Amino acid sequence: MTKEASWKFADDIVVETTQIVAARTHAAEVGVESVSPAIGSQLAVIAAAARAKSIVEIGTGLGVSALWMLRGAPDATITSIDTELEHQQVARAALLDAKVPANRIRLITGTAGDVLPRLNESSYDLVLVDADPASVIEYVEHGLRLVRQGGTVLVPHALWKDKVADPAQRGDTVGDFRTLIAELSGSDAVLVALSPAGDGLLQVTKIVE
Length: 209
Ligand SMILES: C[S@@+](CC[C@H](N)C(=O)[O-])C[C@H]1O[C@@H](n2cnc3c(N)ncnc32)[C@H](O)[C@@H]1O
Fold this sequence. Notes:
Blueprint: H1 3-12, H2 18-29, H3 37-49, E1 54-58, H4 64-72, E2 77-82, H5 85-97, E3 105-109, H6 112-115, E4 124-129, H7 136-146, E5 147-156, H8 172-185, E6 190-195, E7 201-206
Parallel strand pairs: 1-2, 1-4, 2-3, 4-5
Antiparallel strand pairs: 5-7, 6-7
The structure holds S-adenosylmethionine.
């Protein structure tokens, strides 16, 4: 068996809810890349294990990652940022359809770079970083400011289409992911794990305030 077969297996065994399947289909139709089923299920497990009550999501998309995180942490409030109002309208409908109470869904339409500085520091259990990859380092810095001690920043696509691990690959996004992973891995302020499922999931838990 190849690694590809194992990754396909990890995606294929996941059972998604009807709302997640619908959101994923809708996202594909409008060309938005949702987290894979294997990553989504991992997000749910992390959210559940953290007993997350407050989540920030950078990059709502059509709601796939939000639906997964709230499946793991059904009591959580999600604050999700996206530049596209149409994406968020579909995501809100999907979350409501999944019985997430309206008062726990806070969707902010805007640029993450403008919105993140306005959020309170050390106030969130989880921050998911999944918007424009050119700003991933900036968003993770914000994420680590926003999570409480013991909180976790999650970065899907951290292996960026298998390019991060390939020394022959160059480019700003690849370089930024390499820098991010290397710098965080050498930091005493966080615990870091890089899961190779899907397109990679970087998990960064803040252990020092
Ligand atoms: C990869 S998609 C998010 C997918 C979503 N997390 C999921 O798995 O269902 C990236 C989203 O980030 C949004 N986006 C791009 N640049 C942004 C920015 N500067 N600030 C906020 N959102 C941004 C896009 O509109 C898009 O909906």
